[in-house]
Structures are given as structure tokens and as C-alpha cells.
Amino acid sequence: MLAAIWLFCGLNVSANDGVFYVNGNHLVPIQETDISLTKEVLTIGLCDDGYASVDVQYELNNQGAAKTVVMGFEANAPYNDDVPFSPQGIHPYITDFTVRMNGEELTYMNAVVKWDYEVDGDFQPLNLKRWKAFGEVKMKDGEDLPHNAMLYNEQLDSLIDFSYAYYFVAHFQPGKNTVHHTYRYRMSHGVGRTFEVPYWLKPAMRWANGQIDDFTLRIKATDTAKHFFLPDSLFSASEFTVTEGIGKMRKAKDWEDSCTEFTLRNGTVEWHATNFKPVADMTIQSAERINYDHFILGTFYDRSDAYNPGAYILEEGKKADRERILQNLPYAHRGYVFRDKKLRKYFSQFWWYMPDASYQPTTDDFTPREWRLINEHQ
């Protein structure tokens, strides 16, 4: 889950709400002894505006008397992105955060906490009068901070990584309890990646049963199409299935690691397991680099602004052919069956292309990025 150095904006979200002991803004992960995580339904939507939507529903069983615990998650500060530090602990790229417990809406709190790569979840209190953010202070050697995901203490001449924490007080009744929260957060992107969606699964191990008894993961591409992959090592217990819309999957390689490659068009892919013990965290990654020997125009077309078709160059062919292909990418992305034999042959070589004989070409749902693509290559 470390943010790769090539990312323009890196965001790691420690979701699967864990349980904490809180003293001020000191969040200490603890192992719950009475409350078990019996069911989780996690739905992640991949959107064209550069954000992912998260909807997570928990069922938890309190085997003891009524009790109050603190639930929450951490989100690392954006890396290598020119965004101001938030001393209030509100992440600049998380929006629309809501949480409901047993049907009632709860208030939540925020904090800025130290994050230690080596000690997972060991958060320490920060006196923000002493710890300064990128651009606010020079280090003793006169240099700026290395990047804006760190804070600096001039007195200690020390640097730390920090996170923004979201947490709330949860009152558990005996027996079954439900927690439902939603939010949106900006996806990471960079060289070789149109998007990355990191999501921490391991905090679920902090509950009394040390697992998720019944776990469902749903990844949705609503009113769009997305091409991505997931590592097989984390999802070997069962197979994925396409449950809505149009989509398909196949086994692939991410460098030397086995993975499953997906292409969805206005669809949903689902994975289900029981007694799920996540030993690693998850990252949904766009699949530009999967299963190709060289960059080729049309490897995959993503409707979001992060996609840069200029990076993909036809090794052979006339300029007029390249321009025509670029103009027709949005239609191929929607499954248009080309009457032109040359275009039909060209797009049919790509695994992500899923012909749809019922699709009637229209520009009604074209994104601003698609209009720029068409206008730039007329």
C-alpha cells in the first residue's frame, strides 16, 4: 500500500473500519474481544471524474453487554500533489462522508495522526503548533520538506509521515448491529496508470473473530466502461462473476504476478467468500500495462481526464488512419459494431472491445474528455 514514486496524487485509504482506543487525537488500534464482524458488503464504484465511490455495509455481533467503542479509518495524506495541509484533519480528497449505525445518522470526528510505515496503525498524537506542513517552514538545512505528505518538527529536526483520521463513537447493543457508511475519494493516477484505487482490508482483523465471516466485494462501472485488474493472491478462495451489465474477465500477469483482468461496460463484478481473513490490502489498478508487448493506440480507452491517448503511438500506419482511430475510440468503447472493415478489424484485436449490436451511435453521453479527443483529431 505504499504510494509509488511515480504517482501524481497518491491516496491510501485504511477502510474496513477498525476499533480504537482514543485519547485526544491519539488513536490506538486495539483488538476487540466481544464484537465480531459477521458480514461486510463493500461496493466500490469507478467513476469518470477521477473519484471512486465507496459504500460499505457491516453487520457486527456483540456477544456481551451493551458497550461503546470507537470505530474509524485513516487516509494517508496525498503524495506529490500541490494541495494545502488540513490541520482540522479533513482530507482534501474525501467528500460526502456519511455514517449510520442501526439506522441512525452519527456525527464523526477528524484528527491528524502520525502514520508509521513499519508499525501498522501505530498512531501518535501530534501537537500541530510544533509540527509544520510543506511550505510552512524550512528545515534546518534550508531545504523544503521532501513532499507534502510529511510534517516537520524544527525543535526535534525530525520528519514524520501523517494521515487524516475519520472516526466516530459507536454504541453497540447486545446482538446484531449494523453500520453503513459512504464516501467518495480521489483515485491515484500517474505514469502507466489511469487510476489506482487502494483499499485497506487488514483492519477487519481487529474484531473479535479475526476475520469477516461473510464478505462480498462489488466493483461497479456505472454509465461508463473500465478496464482493471486485481491480484489473484488475495482472491483465491472463489471466482469473480459479472452480475450486472456487460463484462468479462481472464487470467493475466502483472509483471510476474498472477492477476485477474476485467473489462466492464455499465456493469458490476462480484466476489464472495466466507471466513475471509485478509492477509494483505487491495488495490484496484487500471490495466494499461496488462497483456501487451508494446504501446499501441487503442490499448484501452478510458473516459476520464487522466487518460492520455497521446501516450500511445501506432508503430505503423498513416497519420490519417491514426486520426480516424482516435475519433472512433469513444464509439468502440461503447461497443459499436463498425461497418467499416478496417475499423472493425482494428478494434477487434483488443480484448476490451465488446461489440454490442444493439448500440446505436450517439454523442448524448460523451464526456468533455471525449469531445476534446474528437475535436483534436479531426
Number of helices: 3
Proportion of helical residues = under 10%
Percentage of residues in strands? over 45%
**How many β-strand runs?**
19
Please characterize this protein's 3D structure.
With 378 residues, the protein is mainly β. It is 8% helix and 46% strand. The chain has three helices and 19 strands. The strands form two sheets. Strands 1, 4, 5, 7, 8, 13, 14, 15, 16, 17, 18 and 19 form a twelve-stranded mixed beta sheet that branches. Strands 2, 3, 6, 9, 10, 11 and 12 form a seven-stranded antiparallel beta sheet that branches. α1 runs antiparallel to α3. The model is unreliable at 1-9 (pLDDT under 50).
Question: In brief, what are we looking at here?
Answer:
The chain has 378 residues and is mostly beta strands.
Chart the SSEs and their pairings.
Blueprint: E1 7-9, E2 13-23, E3 26-29, E4 35-46, E5 51-62, E6 67-76, E7 94-101, E8 104-105, E9 109-115, E10 131-133, E11 150-153, E12 158-172, E13 175-186, E14 188-190, E15 193-199, E16 212-231, E17 241-254, E18 257-276, E19 282-286, H1 319-333, H2 341-348, H3 368-376
Parallel strand pairs: 4-16
Antiparallel strand pairs: 1-14, 2-3, 2-6, 4-5, 5-13, 6-12, 7-8, 7-13, 9-12, 10-11, 11-12, 14-15, 15-19, 16-18, 16-19, 17-18
Helix pairs in contact: 1-3
Essential attributes:
single chain, 46% strand, mainly beta
